Amino acid sequence: MAHVKLPRGVIALGLVSLFMDLSSEMIHSLLPISRANLQRLPRRFWWVVVFAAVLTLARFSEAFAAAARAEHGDVRHLGAHDPDCHEPGLRRQCLPLG
Questions:
Q1: Domain ranges of the chain
Q2: In this predicted model, what pLDDT tens digit does every residue of 22-50 receive, in sequence order?
Q3: CB burial string 63-72: b at 16+ within 10 A, e below
Q4: Model-level pTM greater than 0.70?
Q5: 66, 60 contact by CB (below 8 A)
């Protein structure tokens, strides 16, 4: 069987994953939240949690859509609100970081 050398990125991600698992196991014993304690939380708390989750999903989908458009070369949404930014020759000058 031949040895395969793993790329540095794979090794780094493996180590990060290992340390994240270790830290989550260490902190798990410190969290005193049980199912009974969660059931005692007021209903308005859960409404806030649901509202925050919906907003988080909305922002994630917006970022994903922007990344997908940028990957396909549609960078018009990244330009300033200047009508000249939508001309093909001027796109690079209108990008916020470019």
A1: 8-94
A2: 888 888 777 777 778 888 889 999 999 99
A3: eeeeeeeeee
A4: no
A5: no
